[in-house]
UniProtKB/TrEMBL annotation:
Span of the signal peptide: 1-37
Name of the protein: GDSL-type esterase/lipase family protein
Organism, as annotated: Streptomyces werraensis
Keywords for the protein's UniProt record, in alphabetical order: Carbohydrate metabolism, Glycosidase, Hydrolase, Polysaccharide degradation, Signal
CBM2 domain: residues covered: 260-367
Listed Gene3D superfamilies: 2.60.40.290, SGNH hydrolase
Cited Pfam families: CBM_2, Lipase_GDSL_2
Regions annotated as coiled coil: none
Iron as UniProt keyword: no
Superkingdom of origin: Bacteria
Length: 370
């Protein structure tokens, strides 16, 4: 906060030629206060940094080195007007970064909700965006997905009470494979399957909830050091998955360092299985403009479940990464969408023997219309 020193009134030292105190003359109206030169108004303004809270347990905070990698990815991409916030200090990592965080080792999200722990943390840090990977300890403790999602509801309500424009990135948790918890792997899958529907129901135009798939392509054998906590390779994968979603929210945050005139654009992508055949399936993805302004282009990130790989699309342009993640952009003619309008593209995917019912997690990004 800028502080301005108040100038001393020169009349406090004036005495009249009659020897009367100036204060008395002023009170009698016989002496006007001396004029002081007004300082010109300070018209220089700088956008407040976008405040980002990494929220979770030890995967986020002990030491949570993916945060350091994510911070530097954002800086390298030009997102310098940001501030990672939290009541916990940096915890090492050997990389220069803003290490403030809210990653409390051993904490259950259900405990954080039932004990009302989050409001004080929000009040102390005032985030604009929350990046949440929270629930691993609940899974380990065999807490039912319904209870975990109810805790998400509680935390989201507290976030919005703190900031009605809160933007929330919620992770589908990284896999678990600890030697002492045989059921943890399946429980993570069960919870992750429920998160997209929860987020879709909780998201609003003013306070979007965006799902980030941290599960697909993450291997506990190579990306963790104990079946739970990420090693250096795991940190790289987690940061890479957070980055595009977080960068988009930083750009769209009201009052952030971007152009204040830029409209907020959002879209959704929903996957629907059309037919199943031996060794593959056909599906359709519907893209909908959920913002109040036109969209001039969209991109969908598609992560097929159960090892499936997208091999062909129509009404879109396909790029497939080595880990099977597919990126589909509009075909040009179907890129412009009015508010509330939708379009669709089709796809064919190959599957392995014994694959489950076709499914995929999707993320959607859009550009504002001219």
């Amino acid at each position: 906060m800028r502080h301005t020193r108040r100038p001393r009134l020169p009349g406090s030292r004036i005495r009249s030629s009659l020897g009367l105190p100036a204060a008395l003359l002023l009170s009698l109206g016989l002496l006007a206060p001396a004029a002081t030169a007004a300082s010109p108004p300070d018209t220089t303004t700088a956008a407040d940094p976008v405040r980002i809270m990494p929220l979770g347990d030890s995967i986020t905070g002990s030491p949570g080195c993916w945060r350091a990698l994510l911070w530097n990815r954002l800086q390298d991409a030009g997102h310098t007007g940001i501030d990672f916030v939290g009541t916990l200090p940096p915890q090492g990592c050997g990389v220069a970064h803003d290490g403030d965080n809210e990653g409390h080792g051993g904490e259950l999200v259900t405990d954080a909700a039932s004990r009302n722990l989050l409001p004080a943390r929000l009040a102390a840090t005032r985030p604009d965006i929350v990046v949440m990977h929270f629930g691993t300890n609940d899974v380990w403790s065999d807490v039912a997905p319904d209870r975990i999602l109810a805790a998400y509801d509680t935390l989201l309500a507290q976030m919005r009470e703190s900031n009605p424009d809160m933007r929330v990135l919620v992770a589908q948790l990284i896999p678990m494979g600890p030697a002492t918890c045989a059921g943890c792997g399946r429980r993570v899958v069960d919870l992750n399957a429920r998160i997209p529907a929860w987020a879709a129901g909780a998201s609003t135009d003013r306070s979007p909830v965006v799902v980030v798939d941290q599960w697909t392509g993450f291997d506990t054998a190579t990306d963790t050091y104990d079946g739970v906590h990420p090693d250096a390779d795991g940190d790289e994968k987690i940061a890479a998955r957070w980055f595009p979603a977080l960068a988009a929210q930083v750009e769209n945050t009201p009052g952030g360092p971007g152009d204040p005139g830029d409209p907020v654009v959002t879209c959704t992508a929903s996957f629907r299985s059309v037919s199943v055949r031996q060794g593959g399936h056909q599906a359709e993805v519907t893209v909908r403009n959920t913002s109040a302004v036109p969209v001039r282009g969209w991109t969908v990130t598609l992560r097929p479940a159960d090892g499936a790989r997208v091999t062909q699309v129509w009404n879109g342009a396909l790029t497939t990464a080595a880990d099977g993640v597919a990126t589909v952009s509009d075909a040009g003619w179907n890129g412009s969408l009015a508010p509330g309008a939708s379009t669709a593209f089709g796809l064919i995917a190959t599957t392995t023997a014994g694959s489950a019912v076709p499914a995929a997690t999707t993320d959607c990004a859009a550009a504002p219309g001219a």
